[in-house]
Design a protein that fits this description.
By secondary structure, this protein is an alpha/beta fold. It has 13 helices and 9 strands. It has helices spanning 22-39, 60-69, 88-101, 118-124, 128-133, 135-146, 174-183, 198-208, 232-251, 266-273, 275-280, 289-303, 317-336; strands at residues 7-12, 43-46, 75-82, 106-111, 167-171, 187-189, 220-229, 284-288, 307-311. The chain has an 8-stranded parallel beta barrel with strand order 1-2-3-4-5-6-7-9, surrounded by 7 helices. Helix 7 (174-183) packs parallel to helix 8 (198-208) and helix 12 (289-303) crosses helix 13 (317-336). The longest helix is centred in the C-terminal third of the chain and has 20 residues, at 232-251. The radius of gyration is 19 Å and the shape is globular. The termini are close together.
């Protein structure tokens, strides 16, 4: 159990909902970020995905800058930049620029996965697999470009040199835990969909962590799905869009947009009990404030994480904002109870 107050943040995929345009989706992202700032969220991360019609967070750095301009104190960042898709130099230049424009407000979360299918990954970068295998070295290049000591190098990113942009290692396996620990960087685990290795990864990270100039002791963020409403029934209805999205992911069926919510049916309840769905949604919390508060306390007691990064993929923007407001209230109450 972590005795310190738990920070809470948002992971946004900029999901396109049925009946909405991409422009509407981006406007909803800005609106949600402004509300997140009001509710006391620490950071707002946008994820990089490609060739997925229902996800609008493809040009992640551009969207981060757009949201940063519409907010004042919220930390904005990537959850994450899929590094094998990019040149480390370009990443340093983009995030160095963001960090210069919005001082002490930009995070650089970095992941190894493509955030898309293999064919699209090759279209983005033909040497994707080589870049994926050299992931640790690619991170070191970014760190070098941000270093003030890189001023005499032949290849530089002057806009990034000396700019404070914290790097977070994202992961969904134990491989990333070893890497984050060895580099002494904060670790964000994607337990909102990759649930099986959460506890082994946390144990590895804590056991192997080596202090660095960036971080003195381990710092862990855990991703979770949360749907909170005034009643369990309302929350279940809100989550039906998410359940259908999970089924699409598992079956490989691409959706053009997130479906509208519907009543929780026996068929959908049965779907939630399917082994593959149940495993993927293990750290998904659905219900009223009191129900979710108890479940969340148990999760925090067992994991001891420092920060929750919450995602709520539902169709209705008002319901989504209300859920994030209730989540903030829950975590603040849990912090007050410590």
């Amino acid at each position: 159990m972590n005795d310190k107050p738990i920070a809470y943040s948002i992971l946004d995929l900029a999901v396109v909902t049925k009946g909405s345009s991409i422009n509407d989706t981006i406007k909803n992202t800005v609106s949600l970020a402004q509300k997140a700032e009001e509710f006391g969220y620490t950071r707002y991360w946008l994820a990089e995905h490609h060739n997925m019609p229902a996800i609008a967070s493809t040009a992640t750095a551009i969207l981060i800058g757009h949201v940063a301009q519409a907010t004042t104190t919220l930390k904005l960042g990537s959850g994450g930049i899929m590094l094998p898709n990019h040149s480390p130099l370009i990443v340093a230049e983009q995030f160095g620029t963001l960090g210069t424009m919005y001082p002490n407000r930009i995070d650089l979360g970095i992941g190894r996965a493509p955030g898309t299918d293999q064919e699209t990954a090759r279209a983005i970068r033909s040497d994707f697999m080589d870049a994926a295998h050299s992931f640790p070295e690619e991170i070191e290049k970014i760190q070098k470009y941000f270093s003030i000591n890189n001023q005499n190098a032949k290849v530089r990113a002057p806009v990034a040199e000396g700019v404070s942009v914290p790097i977070f290692i994202l992961g969904s396996s134990t491989d990333s835990a070893h890497l984050a620990a060895r580099k002494g960087l904060p670790y964000a685990f994607a337990s909102h969909f990759a649930t099986a290795q959460l506890f082994p990864a946390l144990e590895i990270y804590r056991k192997e962590f080596m202090p660095s100039p960036e971080l003195e002791k381990p710092y862990i963020l855990a991703g979770i799905n949360i749907f909170v409403a005034d009643t369990d029934q309302e929350a279940e209805r809100m989550a039906t869009s998410f359940i259908k999205m999970i089924v699409s992911l598992l079956t490989g069926a691409k959706r053009e947009a997130l479906d509208e919510a519907c009543d929780m049916t026996p068929e959908l309840r049965e779907t939630l009990e399917h082994p593959a769905v149940k495993q993927m949604t293990l750290y998904t919390f659905i219900g009223s404030k009191s129900k979710v508060k108890n479940e969340l306390k148990d999760f925090l007691d067992k994991t001891g994480v420092d920060e929750l990064i919450v995602t709520t993929n539902c169709h209705n923007q008002k319901s989504r904002i209300k859920s994030y407001q209730l989540v903030a209230e829950i975590i603040n109450e849990l912090n007050d109870d410590k």
